[in-house]
């Protein structure tokens, strides 16, 4: 059994876990869809083709209803009005797909443990960037491995970034539903997670000894120049390139490469490849690349 917590200050905003069941329905015209998908593309780089119409309307319908609009044209005018700039962030949060879980695509974490970490110079700060981190499951998975192999008080840190503000809130709290712990190895669960009791029953919290090494920042990867984040030994960019077209993939990857130390590793999702995207990285094995 792992240690318990019941600190009301760490309390969960349960709204984030409520699945949207109520779905008002609004017709979207081709012109309205084109305008909205162009806006999404210009901001995020995410390509919403016609097959994504249902996804977009499904996600935004509740918002239109809440704002009292009767069609998408009214909503588009509203978000384009500078006075409602915050609504753009709401729209971006609604259209991103944030699917993730702890120890997702576990071969990457085996590679980190078995190949990357044994090769590092002792005592030197080891830095990992989980770009497009979603709710923090990826960043904390990396942190569990680093704490295990480099020590809980060792010289290492993890940066998690994402464009979506609401998933980052959960990431910063480090508070998850118990079913999300299913793939965390039991010894890590016991060592790095606190089990919720009383009103926190059915949840777990990432222990502070891990959280103090992990930092989250909101960051859009689809920009001309990324703000400098320092140099990293490993960059995880997993399961986000699939939403981008080739020019966006190139820009995003080429903007990240300068933040990788020489001989640093760059890891993509299993359905993604950097072939035709960059020449700055050499493939070590499928989905794992290295800066020379
Ligand atoms: C499917 S999740 C992948 C999460 C995690 N990397 C994993 O593999 O489990 C994709 C994430 O990319 C983020 N994302 C999409 N476009 C982005 C952009 N332009 N800049 C930063 N993050 C973005 C989304 O908000 C979402 O959280």
How would you portray this structure in words?
This protein is of the alpha/beta class and 292 residues long. The protein has 2 domains: 10-94, Orthogonal Bundle (Chemotaxis Receptor Methyltransferase Cher, domain 1), CATH 1.10.155.10; 99-291, Rossmann fold (3-Layer(aba) Sandwich). 36% of the residues lie in helices and 19% in strands. The protein is built from 10 helices and 11 strands. The protein has a 7-stranded mixed beta sheet with strand order 7-3-2-8-9-11-10, with helices on one face. A 4-stranded mixed beta sheet has the order 1-5-6-4. A hairpin with a 6-residue loop joins β5 and β6. The longest helix has 15 residues, at 30-44. Residues 44-46, 96-100, 104, 132-134, 138, 162-164, 167, 220-222, 238-240, 243, 269 line the site of S-adenosylmethionine.
Summarize the structure.
The chain has 292 residues and is an alpha/beta fold. The chain has helices at residues 30-44, 53-67, 72-80, 85-95, 107-116, 137-150, 165-173, 186-192, 208-211, 246-256; strands spanning 4-5, 126-131, 156-162, 175-177, 193-196, 203-206, 214-218, 232-237, 260-268, 281-285, 288-291.
